[in-house]
Amino acid sequence: MSTAVRNLLRLICASAAIVLLAAALNFVVDPLQLFRPARFYQAMYSPDSRMQNAGLIRSQDFDTVFMGTSLAIHFRQSDIDRILGVRSLKLSMTGSNSVEHSFVLAAALERHPRRVIWQMDDWIFRDAPDIDADVYIPADLYRRNAKGVAEYLFSGSIARESLWILARSIPPLQPVTARLTTGVLFKFPIPNVDDINVLRPDFDVAGFYNANKAVAAFRHITDPVRSSYLAEGYDYEAMVRHFERDAVALIENHPDVNFDIYFPPYSILQFVAMRDASPATLRIVYDFSVYAGRRLVGFPNVRFFDFRAAREVTHDLNNYGDVIHHSPAIDLKVLSWLAAGDYAVRGDAPTASLERLRAQVEAYRTDGLKQ
User: Fold this and answer.
1) Are residues 6 and 149 in the same domain?
2) Among 228, 287, 347, 351, which residue has the least CB neighbours within 10 Å?
3) Is the pTM of this model over 0.90?
């Protein structure tokens, strides 16, 4: 055997050994806790919900699942548990759609929770890629099939995270590694599951959520140059089809699970913007609300809440950072409403809350809004 061949074989063997060592490291440390909860090291978590949720579903103990979009991303699990008297798992995903919600919830429901709290709105039922065509969500990690497990175990970036998590577990190195563990350098910078995607204690809440921000956003989206944005994704037939496939089918397939579904308290300016700049879009929102509301109240295992007409919140623009995203104080109010059963839609009056919203939108005047 020539020297060149021997050197090539040594290189191949060394490379294979490195790959196998990385896979063994990833399996033992398991940064996502996909195979088992963390035991001999401090668990770390990623703010990338679409990836992290796959591990949370497998590693956490819960009886309630909390799902939503960016309007539900800053809730604390400890607040959900305290106010609702549950053991929750927050799986909210920023910018998410009903395809993603249904897929992730189906994975969580394999753990047999008793309750699902689901923040819905009309926007999540827009056209979206099938789950395997969605480049943002690692679907095979949720399935834990051969492809997903192999990609996870043989990932060099995951091996780097594994080494860093181990380094953080060595007492003399903890002060240094804790300072260097940021979301820029590493994917898993969060040491407490309750802190995943919540606002930092030093976050300037009043500076971010105030009437000036809400009004500026209203002016922006109603500007004729940009107002076509309001209509994007609003196709009534497609929305109904996706609602039936992604929401109704999941509810029907889990009759033993209680679903608390709510429409969040958008500011009144969201609907006024549609009224003034895209009335056809507002009609679609109303029509879809009628359809969805009537369908949801017909299920014995569903409680449906419509917070969009909660005037004490939606008309106070200091609660908002734009026309839809509300402050953490309203997160707590939403939980208290759910606990008390406030704004629940009754089966004998499924459109009553929508009629209150419609009346508020028609009556609202923008003349007094600050420039």
Assistant:
1) yes
2) 228
3) yes
Domain that holds residue 139: 1-123+131-198
Structural tokens at position 210: 């105030």
Q: How many CA atoms lie within 13 A of 86 on its CB side?
A: 23
Run of H or E including 22: helix 3-29
Burial track 216-238 (b if 16+ CB lie within 10 A, e otherwise)? ebbbebbeeeebebbeebbbeee
Phi-psi region of 33 (alpha: psi -120 to 50; beta: other; left: phi over 0): left
Instruction: Locate 240 and state its tokens.
Output: 């109904």
For 142: left if phi > 0, alpha if psi spans -120 to 50, otherwise beta; the answer is alpha
Single out the residue of 56, 57, 320, 128 nearest to residue 205, CA to CA.
320
DSSP 223-260: STTTGGGGGTT--HHHHHHHHIIIIIHHHHH-TTSEEE
The verdict on 186 and 265 lying in the same domain is no
Could you give the CA distance from residue 234 to residue 215 in angstroms, rounded to a whole number? Answer: 23
Q: Rounded distance, CA 187 to CA 200, Å? A: 18
